[in-house]
Amino acid sequence: MAVVTTGLRILALVAAVSVAGCSTLTGGDSDNEPAGSKAQFWRNTFVFGASEPPPIVKPDEESRRMSCPAISILDGTAAYRVGGNDGSNQSVSYQASVVQYARECRVEGNTLYMRVGVEGRLLLGPQGKPGTFSIPVRIAVKDGDHAAYSTATRVSVTVPAGEDQASFSHVQDGIALPIDARDPGDRYQVLVGFDPSAGAPAHRAKRSRHRR
Fold first, then answer.
1. Residues 165 and 159 sit within 8 Å (Cβ to Cβ)
2. FRET label pair with 92: which of 16, 27, 133, 175, CA 20 to 30 Å apart?
């Protein structure tokens, strides 16, 4: 068994979503984070389950080259907004945004196994109220122009009473892909984001307690 782990590309949001404007946020590449940095600690803990990544088992000289596929956000899916259909920001209920994402790979025989993690943040809009929300997170793997793997998961996130935002995370394990003589890092591409088509949005508002 050969374990293949490459540097993780993390999208770090550098601006907060405006509750009034719910503006689109942008991020940058953090492949060059220094050892021991906060971002590196998050990557290791979130994906590997420990503060240090697992050791890399290097293939022998006769083994074919294998690397972990690149990961990115599918264009137009970095944010998920509910409300505001009339074009007014004042009618927005909430908006969720992708904050960070990562993946881990290992090879067993002729199969590439991947673990993909997505972390995000939900912010209430002018019409939003604290409660529990269901956010549609899509994780997909492309093989050229074809979809080799795709799954949408409703991730639950709770905004506590008195707060206007909350973080959430989702890790998809057990993604299995066939490999051949080609480097899987060249063959496959991992995509993450929000998919509004994955069922209707759900929201359960917290009930206030009244003393009798």
1. yes
2. 27
Per DSSP, which regions of 53-126 are E strands?
Answer: 70-73, 79-83, 92-108, 111-124
The tokens for 25 are 């946020």
What's the pLDDT tens digit per position in 107-130? 999 999 999 999 999 999 999 999
Q: What is the pTM assigned to this prediction?
A: 0.66
Span 146-187, pLDDT tens digits: 999 999 999 999 999 999 999 999 999 999 999 998 999 999
Residue 68 token pair = 């972990």
Give, in order, the Cα–Cα distances in Å from 46 to each of 1, 33, 40, 104, 161.
Answer: 23, 16, 10, 10, 27
Burial class of 77 by CB neighbour count within 10 A (0 to 12, 13 to 18, 19+): middle
Q: Report the C-alpha gap between 164 and 170 in whole angstroms.
A: 21
